[in-house]
Amino acid sequence: xxxxxxxxxxxxxxxxxxxxxxxxxxxxxxxxxxxxxxxxxxxxxxxxxxxxxxxxxxxxxxxxxxxxxxxxxxxxxxxxxxxxxxxxxx
Length: 90
Description:
Strand order of the largest sheet: 2-1-3
Number of domains: 1
Mean pLDDT: 91
Order of helices and strands: EEHHEHH
Structural class: mainly alpha
Number of helices: 4
Strand content: 5-15%
Shape: globular
Largest sheet: 3 strands, mixed
Helix content: 55-70%
């Protein structure tokens, strides 16, 4: 799977980037996410992205998938901070 970046370029989807962003944003929000939380959410993101978007997902759609996975798993505050752009490298 590939991610279409804002500038139109393509790069490989990297689950490790999602995990890193989740760790950073939870630290910035002072809301703890353990390794199990991060694994569950990142796996959910990957599964949803592959199922719903196929071979290419846009950066914006990927951000929405991450937000939705956070909300579904009880991390609404982290989802809000993520969408405001803090640590928004995924």
